[in-house]
Amino acid sequence: MSNVRSLNRVILIGNVGKNPEMTVITSTGRDVAKFSLATKEGYFDANRVWKDFTEWHNIVAFGPVAKKAEKSFTKGDLVLVEGRIKSRKWTDKNSGQERTSFEIEATNLVVLEKKKREGGGGFAAPPARGGDAFQAPYDNRSAKFPTEGGDADSFPVDEEDPF
Question: What is the pLDDT of residues 130-144, one digit of tens each?
Fold first, then answer.
């Protein structure tokens, strides 16, 4: 037997393209959530002009992960999706040809940033201190986090890129 192992693992960070659509598998009663995720990349073309392009991914989640998708995010939110690539074969009803589609089966979802919405939503401000009537919106990019064996001020923070 070979000692070679394989790994099917995907980590994507992108914006939710549509709200999760919830369904239930009737034979098992298992929850299923489906949504799209857009990741952006770019490159310089031959004329040294920056070109952006968006890659769309079909995401499917089952059970508790599906429930988390339904409750935690909506279209436009920035999320991290961890999972595996799955292929699915099906027959096209129009042409009768067998087709294969690929999707990401999510095993973990993390909301990184909520899209700011009109009429509220978005990030909530931290609790007010004192009696100030006005408080600036909370911005977590300047937050400092303690590191093991160090103090809170020794953690490096890049103000331009929150990741």
Answer: 444 433 444 444 444
Distance from C-alpha of 52 to C-alpha of 50, rounded to nearest angstrom: 7
Per the structure block, which two tokens stand in for 113?
């940033």
CB-based burial, 15-44: b 16+ in 10 Å, e otherwise: bbbebbeeeeeeeeeebbbbbbbeeeeeee
In three-state secondary structure terms, 106 is: strand
Cα separation, 163 vs 159, in Å, equals 10
86 within 8 A of 93, measured Cβ to Cβ: no
Kindly state the tokens that stand for 145: 């986090």
Which domains, from first to last, does the chain contain? 1-116 (2.40.50.140)
Which residue type is seen at 150?
G
Res 90: pLDDT: 87
pLDDT tens digits for 96-106? 999 999 999 99
Tokens 């096209």 belong to 92
Q: Of all residues in the chain, what percent carry a pLDDT higher than 90? A: 64
Give the span between the Cα atoms of 61 and 105, in whole angstroms.
6
CA-closest candidate to residue 69, choices 125, 26, 103, 23:
23
**Rounded to an integer, what is the distance from CA 149 to the centroid of its chain?**
31
